[in-house]
Amino acid sequence: MADNPQEQVQPTRPLSPHLTIYHWAPTMIVSITHRATGVALSVGMLALAAWLVAISNGPDAYQAFYDLAASPPGLVVLFGFAWALAFHFLNGIRHLVWDVGYGFEKETARMSALLVIGLSLLIAAGIFALVWSGRAGYLA
Amino acid sequence: MRNMKTPLHRVRGLGSAHSGTGHFWHERVTSVALIPLTLWFAWAMLGLINASPVAAIGFLAHPWNALLMMGFIVVTLYHVKLGMQVIIDDYVHTPGAKIALLLLVRFAVILTGAVSLFALLGIVSL
User: Fold this and answer.
1) Which residues in chain B are contacts of A140 at CB distance < 8 A?
2) What is the C-alpha to C-alpha distance for residues B41 and A7, in angstroms, rounded to an integer?
3) Helix ranges, A100-137 (H)
4) What's the Cα-to-Cα distance from A33 to each of A26, A28, A37, B25, B30, rounded to whole Å?
């Protein structure tokens, strides 16, 4: 294509290595997951709005919301939000620690990335156990 | 002439983007505010699993809970606006699509906030 200048220069001038050439490191995984969970949790705010609207609209609307939330796909999505919130919360604190100037060393950043992954999974497992054993719902 | 900037422009410290570190700073401030608010929110949501509508209303109608929920919603949605803006700025390079998406995020955030707070006010007055 003549109107695309990049197409013309490609044979003689190679592009610099981009994302796909690098070996995945924990820091990269956590970085992109922070964004992905951020987007997912933004969508989650719509679910929170729907829940509040359902409550304010009376028992029938609440029941409809409840049936959707308690359905297998609903539970998977809600559990996903719980893990995403734990992850974004923990990695957000990691970012704030960086902002005050700590933890930038290569090994420290790598270890804190692994810590965020591990802790977020642990919290998600804890939430799952809490709900599964019937210990959640203490305000109900 | 070595510097075409007026003294006022220089002292404001704003470059060609016409904004300084405001976006960055607001993102951090909302992050810090969201640490306690998110802990409260997680505690509340876990506690309200399987709640009857009466129990959910009773919880949310309590002034402290209503205030914390409002705080969580407003601060989170502002954080959403700031975060989504960064992602759009990073990945969307077509000016038209970029402006459309930035507008969409702003409208969606304000609409979500308005609907959520309106519903919450309704719950409080039930």
Assistant:
1) 47-52, 55
2) 52
3) 106-132
4) 10, 8, 6, 22, 20
> Which residue's entry shows tokens 């509508």?
B53
Taking only the tens place, the pLDDT of each residue in A25-45 is: 999 999 999 999 999 999 999
- CA-wise closest residue to B42 among A25, A122, A85: A85
* Chain B residues with CB-CB distance to A130 below 8 A: 46
The DSSP code for A103 is S
Give the DSSP H/E element, type plus range, for residue A74. helix A72-99
Q: For residue range A92-138, what is the model confidence (pLDDT) as tens digits?
A: 999 999 999 999 999 999 999 999 999 999 999 999 999 999 999 99
Neighbours of A139 (CB within 10 A): 18
Across the interface, do A95 and B31 touch by the CB < 8 Å criterion?
A: yes
CB of A85 within 8 Å of a chain B CB? The answer is yes
Sheet strands (E) in chain A: none
Is there a contact between B116 and A52 if contact means CB atoms under 8 Å apart?
Answer: yes
For the entire predicted model, the pTM comes to 0.88
Tell me the per-residue pLDDT of A42-89, one tens digit each, with 9 for 90 and over.
Answer: 999 999 999 999 999 999 999 999 999 999 999 999 999 999 999 999
Task: Compute the distance between CA of residue A43 and CA of residue A22 in angstroms, rounded to an integer.
Answer: 31
Q: Is B77 within 8 Å of A45 when comparing Cβ atoms?
A: yes
CA distance A32 to A27: 9
